[in-house]
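Why run this: before we spend reagent on co-expression, it is cheaper to look at a predicted model of the complex and decide which construct boundaries make sense. The entries below are exactly what would go into the expression plan.
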Amino acid sequence: MEVTIDPMQTALRVSRVVSVIDNGRIINPLTAGSQVIGGVIMGIGMALMEETSIDPRYGRPIAPSLENYAVCVNADVPNIEPYFINVPDPHVGAQGARGVGEIGITGVAAAVANAIYHATGKRFRSLPITPDKLFEQGVFA
Amino acid sequence: MNPFTYTRAQTAADAVARVMQTQGAVYLGGGTNLIDLMKEGVAVTSKLVDVSKLDLKKIESTDAGGVKLGAEAKNTETANHKLVREQYPLLTQAILAGATMQIRNMATDGGNLLQRTRCPYFYDTATPCNKRAPGTGCGAMEGLNRTHAIFGWSDQCIAVHPSDMCVALAAYEAIVHVRGGENKTRTIKFDDFHRLPGNEPQKDNTLEPGELIEAIELPKSPFGREMPLLEGTRPRELRVRARQRRRRFGTRRQQHQAGPHRDGRRGAQAVACFRSREGAGRQTPRPRSRSPPLLRRR
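The model came back. Tokens follow.
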């Protein structure tokens, strides 16, 4: 996981992701890889953007629509490289293959937070890591 | 459901007359904001006067050397127009930074100025909002207001105007041409067009009731071409500063390879950048609202 921070633009971006998955035997590397890429993209959204805020005074979700719910768009998605260990798992079945599912999202948000720590020396312990939190921790100032 | 009627105006004067004759009538341009607000029950209208067929779509250069944008020109068309791209690149970039392709294809330039705020309390009719229902209070003041105003707010409202395009128009000192009752036309300087909430947050702008935006004029500007927004097309001064920074601190890649930076070198740059902007605000920053306990713990 690699992030870049531009203090001039007060912007944070994920610039590169390598994801290695132990998923038993991989039958179709192309579609399995795509599945992991999709999971990573959701993980980046989880780390930096996606949030449903609930106003504790009313107990209501504030802005409960996609209008204000930011998800990753094409421009937010960096070069993502999925790799597989590709060792058959004898405990699942004769093929040794498992469903890939959304395993790709696992650990992505934590990896982004670690990359931010590596870049800035600041720890972030609540998601999403939005620019205001970066400001609060003095990343830009 | 709130019943309303729909009519289509043929000329600008006709549209103004139709809106003036009915209480609660409003103009309908691209409808990208108004229709949403009507669905949510935020905008309650009795009559829609469709102005999308009026002859207000032209983007043309003026005798004074500027460019005039028709109020009914679409955002996409404006951003991609040769005159705008060449003379007012900031406007192109600002428009393309906002919304999505589908919305920009529908949204009109005049409508962009008249967007309502995206404050979630304004949209949720179950919460108080002085802008939506004057006198009910402000839900955002003590609530979730991460994206709300830092400057220019009042005790009654801390919502901000959502438009990117308007920021560029303000920078270019645009002039808004409007037509009102009795066919009178007037111009409004862009700085005077939108108003701060004050004690009347329900009023976003200084248009009189029934007035129709006909055009937005961009005056000839010696800085027009040198006002870009994005990196890579920075004006000369910024490029020089970036070069100085590279000389002092190394390239971004070198900085990155040097490992985690804890000595605040890059931080120092940012401080310098903000210092230069000190004094730009006319008001002290809004104190952070007391976060509700649930939020503070996070």
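Helices of chain A lie at 29-48, 108-120, 131-136. The two ends of chain A are 24 Å apart (CA to CA). Bring this page to Monday's planning discussion.
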